[in-house]
Write a structure and sequence with these properties.
505 residues, alpha+beta, Uridine Diphospho-n-acetylenolpyruvylglucosamine Reductase, domain 3, Vanillyl-alcohol Oxidase, Chain A, domain 3, seven-stranded antiparallel sheet, five-stranded antiparallel sheet, 17 helices
């Protein structure tokens, strides 16, 4: 789909006029009703005092929070960082609990069921509301930060058993003492093992170590109907799918067993610079076609990198003006090599021969080939919005055979949206990181808000999302699960959670 601006002799001065014009340009897209102005803060209705006292009989009062400030911090609005706009004014949770044992979780599930309350599991806080639609019924957040023990490490058999609240950072630090690694890396320092399993997050190093389906040996979870243990069996249906990627719809993950790998003896980061995303993608395809064994691969937009690597200051708006006004940019293909010294040197020579580039530039010793630190990005994006900047990220996992044509369609459509923002041009900044089956794209849209525009242009962002969704549908990206799979998981949920205690979509 090609989207081009409608010629006009008048200058569009405000967002409302621009988005009305955009809708005329895109008659095939549905008009999504959206709230006017800034959405009100989530409704805060703490548990009644009698229920609070009853809940404190299960766990210590210090591990139960019902104050308005804490409840707001766990609401959808507080967590909004631009990746997803809440579709409705969801109420904040009625209480936050911090259990420190499976026994307390089991008691909490029974307590909530008896009082017709709902439960929302909480790991590192990256995507707790994914596919969740809290209704008027009060719900309780179960924060698993205190289930943070590494239960057993078996260097001989190369597996580790951990509680769900363990962070990947602390786990890798402990495994380093044994010269072992899970091979999984996370962009969030607060990301937990249980949260990654619940969201089925894919590590940037999955090319070398495999994703969670290859490295997750067992899951233990507590459901309203009782505890379950899940592990793969040859020739049988993989029952781990009841929890892997289900976002806690059927129960609370409390324990995981993960495969371990020898820690790499040598690591090397290489950089190949190209003048366009297409050229960088072509270089990556050459390496992929030759089955080069790199651990991770990312294509970064140097303009976006300069934005996020620059210390935030009062001059950030001027930095943004320079970035948006620039017509030139470069893209860097970052390659991470891991293994023995001989393996790393051999792979490096292979890459240099395939790309006909000798020698390839070496990245700095502190270069991190995993995804960017999204926690830092979220703070900077919020600062940009406070300075009346339209800053909104969009993502798309695209199968490799569609990556190049999808990218052209995607960027042309998104760039068209930013052609007019109160007289200032906008900018689309796309980065990519590679997995075995997909190219994961992330595009940051930047534009200035004109005077008089809402501080939180929700309706405009929803229109941007509508365009992005249309492109995804055109290329069959992020298709929903098949009806058979959805039906099977629904039936499993009815069995594991017959009274709908767990908060679901």
């Amino acid at each position: 789909m090609s989207i081009r601006p409608v010629p006009s002799t008048t200058t569009i001065r405000d967002f409302n006029e621009f988005w009305a014009t955009l809708r005329q340009m895109l008659p095939q897209l549905p008009v999504v009703p959206s709230p006017k102005n800034v959405a009100p803060a989530p409704q805060v209705s703490p548990l009644e005092e009698a229920l609070q006292l009853s809940l404190q009989n299960i766990m210590e009062p210090a591990r139960v929070a019902c104050d308005a400030q804490t409840l707001q911090r766990y609401s959808t609005q507080y967590l909004y960082t631009g990746a997803e706009i809440p579709t409705s004014n969801m109420a904040a949770p009625a209480a936050i609990t911090f259990p420190n044992s499976e026994q307390e979780i089991a008691q909490l599930l029974t307590w909530a069921e008896e009082r017709e309350l709902r439960i929302l599991p909480w790991g590192g806080g990256g995507a707790p509301y994914q596919h969740k639609h809290p209704d008027a019924t009060p719900y309780i957040v179960v924060d698993l930060r205190y289930l943070n023990r590494i239960l057993e490490i078996s260097p001989q058999h190369r597996w580790v058993r951990t509680q769900a609240g363990v962070t990947w950072t602390s786990l890798e630090e402990s495994l380093a003492e044994h010269n072992l690694t899970t091979g999984q890396c996370s962009p969030w320092t607060t990301a937990t093992v249980g949260g990654a399993v619940a969201s089925h997050s894919i590590s940037a190093k999955a090319l070398h170590y495999g994703d969670l389906t290859r490295n997750l040996l067992a899951i233990k979870a507590l459901c309203p109907a009782g505890p379950i243990r899940l592990s793969p069996h040859p020739g049988a249906t993989d029952d781990r799918l009841l929890m892997l990627g289900a976002f806690g719809e059927c129960g609370i993950i409390t324990e995981t067993t993960l495969r371990l790998h020898p820690a790499p003896q040598e690591q090397l980061n290489l950089v190949a610079t190209r003048s366009s995303m297409g050229e960088a993608l072509t270089a990556l395809e050459i390496l992929r076609s030759a089955n080069v064994k790199f651990a991770a691969a990312r294509i970064i937009n140097t303009r976006e990198h300069s934005l996020f690597s620059n210390p935030t200051s009062s001059s950030i708006r001027q930095l943004l003006r320079n970035l948006i006004g620039s017509t030139t940019t470069e893209f860097q293909l970052l390659l991470n090599l891991e293994g023995t010294r001989e393996e790393v040197n051999s792979i490096r020579r292979q890459i240099e021969e395939l790309l006909r580039e000798k020698p390839l530039q070496l990245a700095g010793g502190d270069a991190h080939l995993c995804e960017p630190d999204y926690a830092h990005e979220a703070l900077l994006l919020q600062q940009l919005r406070e300075q009346r900047v339209l800053a909104h990220p969009l993502t798309a996992p695209v199968p490799w055979h569609n990556a190049a044509p999808f990218l052209r369609d995607w960027e042309e459509a998104l760039h068209s949206i930013l052609l007019t923002t109160g007289g200032h041009p906008g900018k689309t900044l796309t980065t990519l990181w590679a997995t075995e089956d997909y190219a994961n794209l992330r595009t940051l849209l930047l534009g200035f808000q004109p005077a008089g525009a809402d501080s939180e242009p929700r309706s405009q962002i929803q229109d941007i999302q509508a365009v992005a969704l249309a492109i995804k549908q055109r290329w069959h990206v992020e298709e929903p699960p098949t009806a058979l799979v959805s039906h099977a998981l629904s039936r499993a949920g009815e069995f594991l959670d017959p009274n709908s205690v767990m908060l679901r979509g």
